Amino acid sequence: MSELSGFYALWQRELKIYLRERSRIVSSAINPLLWLFVFGAGLGSSVSVGEGDYQTFIYPGIIVMTVIFSSIFYGAYVVWDKKLDFLKEVLVSPIARSTVFLGKVMGGATDGVIQATIMLILAPLFGVKAGLAFGLVYLILFILVVGLVSIGLVIGSMMESPEGFGLLSSFVTFPLFFLSGALFPITNLPAWLSVFTALNPVTYGVDAIRGLMLGTYAFGLLTDFAVLVGFALVMIGLGTLAFRRMKL
Amino acid sequence: MNRTLIVELESLRKEFGDLVAVDGASFSISEGEVFGLLGPNGAGKTTILHMLATLLRPTRGTARVNGYDVIKQPSKVRKSIGMVFQEPSSDDLLTGYENLKLHALLYGVPRSIREKRIEEVLDLVDLTDRKRDFVKHYSGGMRRRLEIARGLLHNPKVLFLDEPTLGLDPQTREHIWHYIEGLVAEQNISVIITTHYMEEADRLCDRIAIVDHGKVVVLDTPENLKRELGGDIVKLEIKGPDLKAVEALPYVKKVEVKGSSVFLTVTDAGSHIQEILSLVGRVSTAELRPPSLDDVFMHYTGREYKEEGEEGGFWERAMTASERR
Hints:
- The complex is a heterodimer of chains A (about 250) and B (about 325).
- With about 250 residues, chain A is mostly helical.
- Chain A is about 75% helix and about 0% strand.
- Chain A has one domain (about 1-245).
- Chain A is built from 11 helices and no strands.
- Chain A is globular, with a radius of gyration of 18 Å.
- Chain B is of the alpha/beta class and about 325 residues long.
- Chain B folds into 2 domains: about 5-225, P-loop containing nucleotide triphosphate hydrolases (Rossmann fold), CATH 3.40.50.300; about 230-290.
- Chain B has a 6-stranded mixed sheet with strand order 7-8-9-4-10-11, sandwiched between helices.
- The interface of A and B includes residues 13, 83, 91 and 93 of A.
């Protein structure tokens, strides 16, 4: 089965490169910590979010933030693969385009899960105890990351330059982050704003993880799960199409 | 010659908007043949190659590689070919070995022979002792050799080499030629080379197609192409030349004056140069050389062979590559 071995090979390559570029891992861990300590402590001193501490409240949101930025940015490596001409080697091989896409998704998802793990290890520092629910947190994060990586890959497949990618992807990442309820509760928002948060798939990721860690849901775990699975599937479909149409 | 045809082009045409990059190319290549596509940059050589490799869809016409149609059976075509791109296309954050392993998995090389094949191709290009090094530490020539090895790894029927020595220094070029000659001798494989170096095509190819503005202008063996010219080129710098006597010589095929330079096409020039020099009088410089692509090209197209802007050479690409991420 060369599709399967090809998928495995592409995933392995992504993982090797990720692990060989330590700066990527370090920088992806430092940013969220800054958010937690500076933003969480700074704003937390004058904001109250129900019973808990603000830092604790935004902790699940910051994990999601980490994966939003790293997962969508991962699409930039497709642009690099084009520029490096490595993509030609992959596209001239007998592997189907859909397999190429899935290999990339799996690579990006692995990166995202590793980053989330670094954040999860630090959970007790912020008064978060999820216990056995950690397994579910991983599952939710994985599904969310698959959808987000696919967004990045779709953008990457359309762009010719890393600059263009940066520009377009920031139009996507910031709304996804700010309208996700990562930094504020979404239950008492003005009506127009809650329309946007409800349309944002990331909202359901934040809700599920916050629910699993802190016990408060806005939608409920099943709704969150269903929306995220739908989101990931739609994005995989779009990504496969985008890769089929991708030109060198 | 009644050998199996391994590549057949039928009025292959490619348009990019208004530009006709390839204008109805038809020719075929036999099993075991080394075939050269020769022409200036922008002539359409790479476009032909990319259509044969199913990376570009022909606007009209079609081609068959190893009996498979490039439009209808792209996956089978891709399995039958090995491609060495003009630009370095290995991953420089992987080792040489890892690049080959990745390739083997992408092409579904069976596990039972995978390691053995990797060893064989590494050995063929003399990179066995560098296989654990990252490709970013390879020189341009080593990287090219690795990519040739990679192109051969899955035992393709045809190897495509797109400008295999573009931007490499003369010594490395010689080295690469040596490897290509070696693999042609040892493996039963057809090779298609695109190049804009006459010397390269001359040395490596059984037959050459000269391509200009997307058209195949002429297709023949290197010997015939040169024979058609009728000899070597003698270039003389003379003030106020009197060429009547030279023009009358039977072995002088063609006389051309450009400013103060005189270009003579001379059969067996080496043994006649003395006589020519004595006839033309005082010469400030004299140069004798075998016909270059420039000359062959001019003979068939009636115009000079010009570089149409050196498209991103190997080194430029390699530089960009090392600056990534």
